[in-house]
Structure formats: C-alpha cells, structure tokens
Amino acid sequence: MIFLGYAFAGGNYTLDPTPTNESDVTNVTIQNGIYDYLYATVNALSYSTDKPTGWDFGTRLNADFNNNLLAGNITFALGKVSSLRVKRRKYGETNWSTIYEQYPIITSDDLSILYYDKTARSNTKYEYAIVPVFGQSEGYLFSEMLTTNYQGIFITDGTNIFNTELDVTISEKRTKQRTVVTTINRKYPYVISNGSNNYNSGTISAQWLEYDHETDDWDVDGGRNYLADLKDFLNNNSPKLIKYQDGRMWLAEISSSDITDTEDASHSQVHTSFDYTEIGDCDSGNDLYDNGIIDAQQ
Questions:
Q1: Distance of CA 36 to CAs 51, 66, 70, 122, 243, Å?
Q2: Cβ contacts of residue 263 below 8 Å, gap of 6+?
Q3: Cβ-proximal residues to 201 (8 Å cutoff; 6+ apart), any chain
C-alpha cells in the first residue's frame, strides 16, 4: 500500500525487531512476597510456566526453598556424580593426562578438592581441569591456566619429597646402545644401532639442608638428620621423579650403588652425590601411575 508516496514496510529492514543489547545477568533479587520456586537458565529459546523437574547443563539457579536458600546443584550432583577427576596438559597441547581422581562422591564435602601437583615442570604453562564423572562418562570440564615456577631441585616418590637450592650440580648424558664392527676388507667400521633404547642418566650433587619456613633460613643444625633421611629415601627401591628449576625433569631410579658425601675443610658443608637413570616418560600419566608417582591413570 502506498500513501502519499510512502510504502508501509517498504524498507528492507522495516519489519525487523528493534536491536537490543543483551548484557550478562550477575544477580537476581526477589522481595516483598512469598515465593515457592526460583529457576534460571541460559536457554532463552524456550519458555514454560511448568516447574522444571531437575538440572540440565543450561541451568544456573534452581531453588525450591525447601527450608533452605540453596540454589545450586549439590543435591543433583551427589546423586549423579561418581567421582571428580583432575586433569592437566601443557598449554597448546590437545591431550589431557589424569593426575588425580577423588571418589566416591557421597557427601557435599567430597565435592571439595585440595590437591598439590608434585609432577609439574618448572617454567611451564599448564591448563588444569576438574571433570565430573557420571558412571563411566565424563561431563563438562572446568579449566584454569597457570604457569609454574620454583627454585632448586626436588625429588619425590609421590608421597615423600626432598628439595634443596644449595650448590646443585647436574651432569647429564643421553644413552643409546651401539656396537662398532670392524671388518678386514674395509678401512672404516660399521656402527650398528638396532635397539630402541634412548634414555638419560647422570649424577646429581648438592648440599642437602631442610628449609625452615618459620625462620626463613636453612636448618644447618638439623642437616645431618635431614641427610640421613634423604639417604634412606633414595635407597627405598621406589622410582623417583626428579625436577629442577630450569624445567628439566626425569622419571628415574637411583642407579648408583653408593651415595657419596664430600665435606669441605671446615666440615660445615657436606655435598652429597648419587647417580640416576631414566626409566619412563615423566610427562606420561600412565608411566607416572605405573611407577607409583600418582594415584590416577589417564
């Protein structure tokens, strides 16, 4: 229809809805009334006055005011979640490794996790995630980035841990078995390398003293006891994870028959050295699990 030269809805976008700016909802207030139910969801494509029967992945609030003000999904989670997994991967990588699993989930306290990752490299950016597990299926993960940074050298078997920053020296070599074969009709020999062995080994030496966080100093007086505990730890026949401040890390066994102490002239400093041999991939969750460093298998 044309009226005085103008066409109703004649423009290309005349009947389009007015553009609106949708901002995040950060709080909800209800007051001056008696309320039986409050429900909020991110699903804006459907609307119903029927009371929802439970949570889904779009639910944000679900409060039935049943003698409490809870609006979360703890009750729902307790009935559905069988365990919580902590996963980790290096920034930029695609594969996750499971480093811890908390189970069974029975009470609301079981949904709270405090876990110290003893297997992370220094100077490395990681992505950590908590994943709810429903039977054998994993739910949506919740992740966070962080960059590790620590000083000195650390040795752990997954339970015990020893560390120091004092006079640390590390010698390292890469070993691959090769055989040199000489023949009578050639000037130069053949080098045969058929095996797949390709591992690191070396020697670590340091002054091992325990750090006292209360005095912010090294416990020199208790150094002999700390060193004795270290030697028992190194000789307990368990695999070790050895980590250094520059990012180097080895899953290794203590391979030397002797643990050697060297004192200075004043006997005030004792440097202890031992050999190690790499036995697995320190970034593999399966290798860490198989050697008892972590309790969860990826």
A1: 10, 9, 13, 52, 56
A2: 269, 270, 271
A3: 172, 173, 175, 252, 255, 275, 276, 277, 278
Nearest one of 200, 190, 194, 185 to 278, comparing CA atoms: 200
Buried b (16+ CB within 10 A) or exposed e, 36-71: eeeeebeeeeeeeeeeeeebeeebeebbeeeeeeeb
Query: Span 115-137, mean pLDDT?
Result: 90
Predicted confidence band at 4 (pLDDT cuts at 50, 70, 90)?
low
Amino acid identity, position 274: F
Residue 207 CA, chain-centre distance (Å), reads: 29
| Chain centroid, CA 126 distance in Å | 7
d(CA 238, CA 218): 27
Could you give all domains of the chain from N- to C-terminal order, each with its CATH number? 34-72 (no CATH), 79-147 (2.60.40.10), 153-290 (2.40.30)
From CA 262, how far away is CA 239, in angstroms rounded?
Answer: 25
Q: What is the pLDDT of residues 78-102, one digit of tens each?
A: 667 888 889 999 999 999 989 998 8
